[in-house]
Amino acid sequence: MEPTKYIWMNGGLVPWENATVHVMTHALHYGDGAFEGIRFYKTSSGPGIFRLREHMERLVYSASVLGMIIPFSIEQLCEATCELIRANEIVQGYIRPLAYYGYGVMGLNPRNSPTEMMIACWPWGKYLPVEQADIKVSSYIRIHPRSTIADAKICGHYVNSILAVLELKGTKYHEALFLDSEGMIAEGPGENFFIVKNEEIHTPPLGTILAGITRSTIIQMARDAGITVRERGISLDEAYDADEAFFTGTAAEVTPIGTINDSVIGSGKIGPITNVLKSRYLDAVVGNTDSYRGFLTFA
Ligand SMILES: Cc1ncc(COP(=O)(O)O)c(C=O)c1O
Question: How far apart are CA 93 and CA 67, in angstroms?
């Protein structure tokens, strides 16, 4: 990660190297933080932050699941993000807001630990730098909605994702795919999953997955283009038999999937619907589509 000049911490900018925490920080021990991943893009009107407000709303929701009240309004968090980008003088990259229980008490009740909040940003390129991803079903299942609140973006949940990523390290696969406890497809470690079959799009329903902001963007873009989208359970056999498959995510954007467990999806080439949605998405994030310009906040 390339350091920038400043990190926003608890209400003000501090130099990157001074943005440190105590080792007794509660979230460091127990994972009780909530975070976001947001991208901003170089546009003709300056850095454009994609769906900033929706990300901050999800952050506040995820924090609330931990009983945490972030002492800043959504407007203040959005403005802080813009201020940070301006101060760092970078035109495109990734933004990481994180709210966490800080240094105060130990033990599993975090309520007497202070709520801390930081936002960092830095230049960041492609997350899955391949034309088409070869993916493999993880031996781990996605976190179970009866063990946690699966649609909250909570730090501790990401051990599940990290295990799936580590399992593939040193193999030829680019990314993992989680099934849920029923054996149906859930999502990737940091991406939502879609298939195309007979010119209709199918994606797993909310429940065991993160309600991805890119997922909802792509659903909207597909429907705007007159393509039917169905949110429903998808089995692995259906995925093998799909015409196209792709991942979506803020980091991964729209990443076409070439193979699942070595089974070639469709023709093996990037499919036409994936192609259209990928290019519509990449146009929208840089402000080239008037009807989606409202998704951008200009820093
Ligand atoms: C587990 C998981 N699923 C899906 C996504 C995609 O979500 P979004 O499109 O909001 O980035 C992410 C990324 O944050 C994720 O971590």
Answer: 30
